[in-house]
Specification:
- This protein is an all-alpha fold and 250 residues long.
- Helix content is 66%, strand content 0%.
- It has one domain: Mitochondrial carrier fold.
- It is a multi-pass membrane protein.
């Protein structure tokens, strides 16, 4: 039951935060391996990206990849797909989750489904460690500090989540960019990446062409997603636990 409640909480949260993930992905792919001034800046800032995607592709475009949120490779490829006038990064032809997975299978067989996973491992490890640590330290501090005490459990969770989001965005942001680039790149007929030969090749090329700032593309939507997502997960989890307790009493 705990697993079901936890999974349901995450599903409920991602419905609200997926649009932020779409915006983040677009920023991370904008100007891929190009120096400043050598590419068209379609997305000027966080709010402009929301407006432009909604205007050009329709409001539902902000929920691209929602059904495949649990399959990171499919999600990234779907979220990167855009109208030609505002397209960034490699554009894959498949238009839905099963189409993407079928394409991945044809490109590299079963093992192709794990292509790019090397970029996700450090991202998940660093992201989870920094998020949980910052969240719990902040929560304890806000609950017990005599100068700035937040007694409301929900408010404490919200503020702690937003503080934790800062640390996650800073530590995980660069790793998230690398992961997105590896997952989204096109594949040659012999199964090799069009742009990157591996993790460190990706790091080297981003550094040489885009510089330090290249690793922090999409940092604002990254932060704006993490904080609310954590809050919503805890809120949904708490409400589902209350529902569970109520049903068990009956």
């Amino acid at each position: 039951m705990e697993f079901i409640i936890g999974a349901s909480s995450a599903v409920g949260a991602v419905i609200f935060t997926n649009p932020l993930e779409v915006v983040k992905t677009r920023f991370q792919l904008q100007g891929e391996l190009k120096k400043k001034g050598q590419y068209t800046v379609h997305y000027k800032n966080f709010f402009h990206a929301f407006y432009l995607i909604g205007k050009t592709e329709g409001v539902l475009a902000l929920q691209k990849g929602l059904a495949s949120a649990a399959i990171h490779q499919a999600k990234i490829r779907l979220q990167s797909q855009a109208n030609k006038s505002i397209a960034v990064g490699y554009q894959h032809e498949a238009k839905n989750t099963f189409g993407i997975l079928n394409s991945v299978y044809r490109e590299g067989g079963i093992t192709g489904l794990w292509r790019g996973v090397i970029g996700s491992v450090p991202r998940i490890c660093v992201g989870s460690a920094s998020q949980l640590t910052a969240f719990y330290v902040s929560k304890e501090f806000l609950a017990n500090n005599k100068y700035f005490v937040i007694h409301s459990g929900l408010l404490n969770t919200f503020v702690s989540s937003m503080i934790g989001g800062i640390f996650v965005a800073i530590t995980m942001g660069p790793l998230d960019v690398i992961s997105t680039r590896l997952y989204n790149q096109g594949i040659t007929k012999d199964g090799k990446g069009i742009l990157y030969n591996g993790y460190f090749d990706c790091v080297t090329k981003i550094w040489k062409t885009e510089g330090f700032k290249g690793f922090y593309k999409g940092i604002v939507p990254c932060y704006m997603r993490i904080g609310p997502h954590t809050v919503l997960c805890f809120v949904f989890w708490d409400e589902l636990k209350k529902l569970q307790a109520y049903l068990e009493k009956k």
